[in-house]
Design goal:
The protein is mainly alpha-helical. The protein is built from six helices and two strands, in the order αααααββα. It has a two-stranded antiparallel sheet. A hairpin with a 1-residue loop joins strand 1 and strand 2. The longest helix is centred in the last third of the chain and has 53 residues. It is elongated, with a radius of gyration of 23 Å. The termini are far apart.
């Protein structure tokens, strides 16, 4: 029982983290890319874009570790690359023309949509049943409505019973949602590996 409860808490926390990181990636790349591109005609714009592109390796590896930690899904990493030698302008050119960087940014920003689903799922599958279970205790302190007003002890006990049923069903659905979020990260790395192999084949063909 204690192990199952710990698993539910872990799943709930992972769903919130998925929303938080998805929101961060979307805002970070939206703002930083617009800012960097708007300054690309100055001396700081291109180096700034180079550093923005380099963040994709850090963020994707963080996603891989986080997914392994919370879902136990093993993900094959894609080979990273060292910073090219030469001037800042040559390094920036290589980073900006690397399709793997743009593919990673695309997947990281789109995680925001998955994060919204996870946020709704965390509330509906985990918080709502808990509130329903506490209905008898909250009867005289909070106005509760579930289709009809919950204003009697009998109604609150029915809601509490439904809450216990929802805890079991919500735990199952929550685990599926967590696996879906983990599968998204795995899909991201598979896409990055394909893009990296295609890029290397194009370079070799030349």
């Amino acid at each position: 029982m204690e192990r199952r409860l710990l698993k539910h808490v872990q799943n709930f926390w992972f769903l919130l983290i998925t929303f938080g990181t998805g929101l961060f990636y979307f805002c970070f790349y939206l703002v930083s890319l617009i800012f960097g591109l708007s300054l690309s005609f100055t001396l700081i714009g291109i180096p700034l874009l180079k550093n923005i592109m380099r963040t994709t390796q850090t963020f994707t590896q963080y996603e891989r570790i986080q997914t392994k930690l919370y879902t136990d899904i093993s993900i094959e990493p894609y080979p990273g690359k060292t910073l090219a030698e030469g001037s800042v302008w040559l390094q920036a050119k290589e980073e900006l023309l690397d399709p793997v960087n743009w593919k990673a940014i695309q997947w990281l920003m789109l995680k925001f949509l998955l994060g919204l689903v996870c946020l709704v799922g965390a509330f509906v599958l985990y918080l709502s049943p808990l509130i329903m279970i506490l209905a008898p205790l909250m009867l005289h302190y909070v106005d509760m409505y579930i289709v009809v007003p919950i204003d009697t002890l009998f109604k609150s006990l029915i809601v509490m019973a439904i809450g216990f049923i929802c805890v079991f069903a919500g735990g199952k659905l929550g685990s599926l949602l967590v696996r879906l979020a983990g599968g998204y990260t795995r899909g991201m790395f598979q896409a990055l590996n394909r893009t990296d192999r295609r890029k290397n084949w194009d370079v070799f063909s030349r």
